[in-house]
Amino acid sequence: MGSGKYSAAAIAATSFFFVFLFCMPCNAQLSTSFYDQTCPDLQSTVKTQVRTSISAERRMAGSLIRLHFHDCFVQGCDASILLDDSPTIQSEKSAPPNKNSVRGYDVIDRAKTAVEKICPGIVSCADILSIAARDATVLAGGPSWTVKLGRRDSTTTNFAQASNGLPFFRDNLQKLIDDFANKGFTIREMVALSGAHSFGQAQCFTFRDRIYNNASDIDAGFASTRRRGCPSSGGDSKLAPLDLVTSTSFDNNYYKNIMQKKGLLETDQILLSGGSTDDIVRDYSKNPATFKSDFAAAMAKMSDLSPLTGQSGVIRRICSSLA
C-alpha cells in the first residue's frame, strides 16, 4: 500500500488533472457527436415532429427556417426567441419583426416535449431548433447539412436587438450587405441565405408599396396579380407566396423570379439592381445545384453564430420558460 504519502509530482499531476476537468467546459465547442451517448435518438425524434408538422401544413417548412434565422441573428443561436414574457423577460416574440409574423414555436415545443421523454434535461431548445431548421429544408426538397450540437439556452433576451438588428423588408442593398457582414457573412452567403424565400409567405403590408408604386423594377403582370390579394389600404395581414411558382418547395425559382422582376419584397428584387449581387443571382438562377450547396454551407455557418456552450447558458426543460 506504500507509505500513505503522495509525492510532490503526484500532487501536482492530480491538481493539474482537476484543473483540466474544471476548465474543459470553458472551452467547449459544438460537436457532431455531442449527444451520441446521452441522447442517441435525438435527431430521429426531432425529425418525426418536424415531418408531422409539415405534413399538416406545408408552409411550416419556411416558417421553421425563418424562426431559426430570427433567433441566430439576435445574440446568437441560443433559443432566446422562444422565451415568453415574464416579470424578468421582455420577449423577442413581441418585437416588431417577430410579432404576428414569426411562426413555428409550437413545433419546437412539441419536439422538445418528445425529446424530454427520452432524454430528460439533456438537450437544449437551441439545438432542437437548429436540427428542426435543417430537417424542414430537407423535407421541402432542399439540401441537408451537418448540424453541430452542444448549444445551451439563453436565460436572457434582447428585445432591442430583435427590434432593430434584423434585416428589414425596405433595406437597400448596402444595408443588407452590411447587416450580414456584421455577422460574418460574405455577399455570396447573404444572397444564398436570401434563397430561403424560395418558400413561405409574406404579409400584404411588407410588399404593398412595391406593387402599387409602378416602379420599373417590377413586372406589370406580377404586380397586377399581387394587387388582387393585397388592397392599397387595409388587409395588412393578407398573405402572398414569396415564390409564385413553387411556394412550398425548396428550389431556385426564387432567383428565376428575380430575373423576371417578380421578386415579392423590395429586398428580394434589390439583389438584381446593378450592384455586386447581380452575378450571384444570375448564377443561382441557372445552377440549382450550386445554390443548394451554397445555401447548406451558409445555413451551417449561421447555426454556429455565437452559441452558448459549456458552463454558459442552461438547458431549458420548457422552451418558452426559465421555470
TrEMBL record:
Ligand binding (substrate): 167
PROSITE patterns in the cross-refs: PEROXIDASE_1 (PS00435), PEROXIDASE_2 (PS00436), PEROXIDASE_4 (PS50873)
Positions of the catalytic residues: 70
Enzyme class: oxidoreductase
EC number(s) stated in the UniProt entry for this protein: 1.11.1.7
Subcellular location: Secreted
Family in the record: Belongs to the peroxidase family. Classical plant (class III) peroxidase subfamily.
Protein name: Peroxidase
Organism: Daucus carota subsp. sativus (Carrot)
